[in-house]
Amino acid sequence: MYENKSQAQMYDRLYQDRKDYDAEAAQVAGFVRARKAGASSLLDVACGTGIHLAAFGKHFDRVAGLDLSEWMADVASERLGGVPVHRGDMRDFELGETFDSVVCMFSSIGYLRTVEDLDSAVAAMTRHLAEDGVLAVEPWYFPDTFLPGHVSTHALGDGHRGISRVSHSTLVDGNVTRMEIHYLVADSEAGIQHRSEIDLLTLFSREDYTNAFRKSGLAVEYVETGGGRPGFFLGTRA
Fold it and tell me: In principle, which of 25, 61, 129, 165 could form an S-S bond with 133, CB 3.0–4.6 Å?
């Protein structure tokens, strides 16, 4: 998604206006501590540019991030100072350490293509859990909750710079969703610029997620969050 620092700043500003990262981090921290009261460490898998990770740092003594993109990991490292941000694929990473909680936010898990990929990712995250740790995964939508043709719009501005985002989602190839997104940025000095992208995300079923957790030896529960968000799968040692 991010090809340079200017684009990262645009995306980050837009999504911070759309999402309450602090509230989401506090909610997940509550889920974790309800299952492990003394949880003090957290790994954020697919941490992107580190906005959620920065918010998690307010709730946990030790935090770290992981992302596949070298560029995103660099931006997150710059944002977070001394917080470790590792490069790695969520399906097979090995950090050599464990955490009281491992999280995967913002439906990043949906970018995986197959059930085998999902199983591998949950297994890799589970390997990085402390013995009584908690895994929290925010899924993409399910086959029965996805709305083909859904349109989303958002805009913000301050008189010097304005950003607008529109998206259109469709269903392709059975369980794969195609989300086409367009951004317009109006800047008082640079003028108007346009950028677009196409994201492909997989509609894994509730059973797919549940099976992946159980194959990794975790007891799993699904918790709804409301507000149009897809909820969380929470795993603890069976």
Answer: 129
